[in-house]
Amino acid sequence: MQTTASPPGSGLLRRTRLRQFLRARREQITPEEVGLVNVERRRTPGLRREEVAALAGVGVSWYTWLEQGRDINVSEAIVNAVSNALRLGDTERTYFYRLAGHNPPQPTAGRRWDSEYARMNALVEGWSRNPAYITDRYGRIELASRSARSLFRIEARGDNCVLKFFTEPSTREKYPEADEVGRGLVAQFRSQSARFPEDREFGRIAERLSERSPRFATLWDCHEVVGPNQSRRKIALPRAGVRVFDRVVMSVPESPESLLTLYVARPEAPSAARPREAVGCHAEAA
């Protein structure tokens, strides 16, 4: 395989992220998950490089170069084959495609719109009286509603949501399922970094946060990714107790670098909930 003639340093950060992602995903898949018989004791977790290469139908040397971040030409067919071998989901596959220098494929169809209409209608109807905010590519607040500023203690434009969560105990205490929330924030931050693969500010923010928060460092090393999505989130309110919100994160058409986050409280009675600790990439979320 011939290496490309890119200028020195071109794409280096992108290939570094690609190397780290592929290795993390390979080490998190067991031989049994892909139908391989594990008859010997292994020194390292997960699959071996030669096993991934065999599953993807590519040469061992070639896959090794890919995982090492060599400056080689990677076809979409190979990216798709390796994605299948590593059992990547839609968001992980999109992340891989971008790091490999290709436009990602369209994600598989989700649930039908008619099954989501009622929830989306409630979201739109309740937006004016519920928290909503827009963040930039790094998770810094660009715009926030009054209820969002009050609930999440947003003091000024530029407050970083990821930084606040992992460095301010009072912020984490708002979430009975804090481990799940933290995991999602880090996965979304990493997914954003792939949209701007040569932007080194993501790495600088991650380095600073890793020094201040061991939990962030652990989750960052997991290389999990998640894109804009709809989810449920429990939040402890000062007077109403724990309430359940529908939360939607979407891209802003007029500003592709930004993400819009909307919350709508579900019409149900407050419920008591206690956080559960979880450690590591495979720990069960609350």
UniProtKB/TrEMBL annotation:
Keyword set, alphabetical order: DNA-binding
InterPro entries in the record: Cro/C1-type_HTH, Lambda_DNA-bd_dom_sf, MLTR_LBD
Annotated HTH cro/C1-type domain residues: 21-93
Record Gene3D superfamilies: 3.30.450.180, lambda repressor-like DNA-binding domains
One Pfam family, short name: MLTR_LBD
Source organism superkingdom: Bacteria
GO molecular function ontology, one term from the record: DNA binding
Protein name: DNA-binding protein
